Amino acid sequence: MQVGTDMTWTGVAAGYSHTCASRSDGTLWCWGANSFGQLGDGTTVSGSSPVQVGTDTTWASVAAGTSHTCASRSDGTLWCWGANRAGQLGDGTTSNRTSPVQVGTDTTWASVAVGFSHTCANRSDGTLWCWGASGSGQLGDGTPGRKTSPVQVGTDTTWARVAVGTSHTCASRSNGTLWCWGANSSGQLGDGTGFYTVPQSVSR
After folding, report:
1. Rounded distance, CA 21 to CA 168, Å?
2. Spatial CA neighbour of 22 closest among 36, 33, 8
3. 38, exposed or middle or buried, with CB in 10 Å at 0-12, 13-18, 19+?
4. Residue 175 half-sphere exposure, CB side, CA atoms within 13 Å?
5. Which of 11, 15, 53, 31 is nearest to 164 (CA)?
6. Are 29 and 53 in contact (CB under 8 A)?
7. What's the confidence (pLDDT) of residue 38?
């Protein structure tokens, strides 16, 4: 099924029950479930057709999770909206947001990954930051409890890419190594042992 008739879509992200996509004109559009404001249109009304996220025309990338969404702009800022019970929006609160709220004031965000109730993002300096739920250590900062603002994952400055699951996180470094942390009940960390609250190397 084609989504409308527009022919300028450039990127798309699919969450649990909502979808967001960017167009070549820098606009961002979302559709689907919206109980927590994850569509970012200022309402909690679900919709089966794309609705524009604000009026900004500088959206660069988008990531959709279970009930929240995060997206970066061309100026390097990062914005999130939707469910926020665990602080996964990174705005220092646990209040749901139906419109984009900025994650801190940093302007060097390079990429973002969104999961069930936590979020992780890279900065252009190679550092990695996570926030939200951490009941299984999925934030990778070695401490328990949720974080409502970004916390740095170690001190390494060679993080290249990050992927976020329900309760675990994996990320690669520029030297080609792969690291995972968080829940490991199904062996999802790839090291054959228990869960970790800090990054552990994945090796065979």
Report:
1. 25
2. 8
3. buried
4. 6
5. 15
6. yes
7. 98
State residue 192's pLDDT score. 61
Nearest to 67 by CA among 56, 82, 53: 82
Quick: pLDDT tens for 16-57. 999 999 999 999 999 999 999 999 999 999 999 999 999 999
Q: CB of 171 within 8 A of CB of 152?
A: no
Burial of 155 (0-12, 13-18, 19+ CB in 10 A): exposed
The one-character DSSP state at 108 is -
The dihedral sign for the CA sequence 41, 46, 51, 53: positive
Please name the residue that has the structure tokens 């926030």: 131
Structure tokens at 32: 């689907």
Cβ atoms within 10 Å of 141's Cβ, excluding its own: 20
Q: How many residues does the chain have?
A: 204
Q: What is the pLDDT of residue 31?
A: 98
Q: Copy the structure tokens of residue 15.
A: 């969450």
CA-nearest of 94, 90, 30 to 62 is: 30
pLDDT digits (tens, 9 = 90+) for 78-103: 999 999 999 999 999 999 999 999 99
Place of tokens 């936590």: 118
